[in-house]
Design a protein that fits this description.
This protein is an alpha/beta fold. Helix content is 31%, strand content 24%. It has helices at residues 14-33, 38-43, 64-71, 84-91, 157-169, 171-176, 205-208, 211-220, and strands at 53-57, 96-104, 108-115, 120-124, 127-131, 151-152, 177-183, 187-192, 195-200, 227-229, 237-239. Helix 3 packs across helix 4.
Length: 241
Amino acid sequence: MTEEGAPPPELPPPRRVGRWLTAALLALLLLLLASPWWGPRLLAELTYFRVRRVEVRGARYLAASDILRRLAVDTSSSVWQPLEPLRARVEAQPGIRSARVARRLPVTLVVTVEEREPVALVAGASGFRAYDAQGVALPIDLTRVPVDAPIVRQRDTLLLALLGRMRTEVPALYRRLDEAGRQGRDEVILRLDSTRVRAMSDVTPARLRDVEPVEQDLAMRRMRVAELDLRFRDQVIARLP
């Protein structure tokens, strides 16, 4: 109450009250975030921070829906739940090499993945399946995502490792590779376009690059080659058809 005739107390302008309220809320939020144990647990109870959106970044071969199923969150989940279990769930997907999960407040989770790269299509009873350089079968739907990779008749970890190194170290040769296989225990057979390349099973990508000047020389002479043999040290033997 005020004395009769006394002027009423002054109230702060509405805009100033709004600023004070916003500042107070931000200060409270910062205080909670600075509390590593009970702060996020308390925030996780607030419906304001329920997950409303999940962004998947970096996925090329896998469908975002497959990654979301692996993430296993819904609108009852909070963005303040621990992120490490979410990352572990995504990385359990065979096609994922690594994953990172981050929050974008107030209602979004951002999942960034690095996929395993297919290096070969391996023939099987039910058709072809993509494999990476470590011999891991990748859950890629080849009817949805075309994969440009050489064909291998069976899963061979040595051969797949070689293809992985070729993809990284001699990408131009790898792009020409149509098919790869083993001959016995000690030899590999690679088909580069229409040229058959024979080498020992321990051949390196650098050694495979030796076929390029030979092919160029034969092309200048307008000579066709049926096979290039790299089995002998420091030599490339060209066999004509």
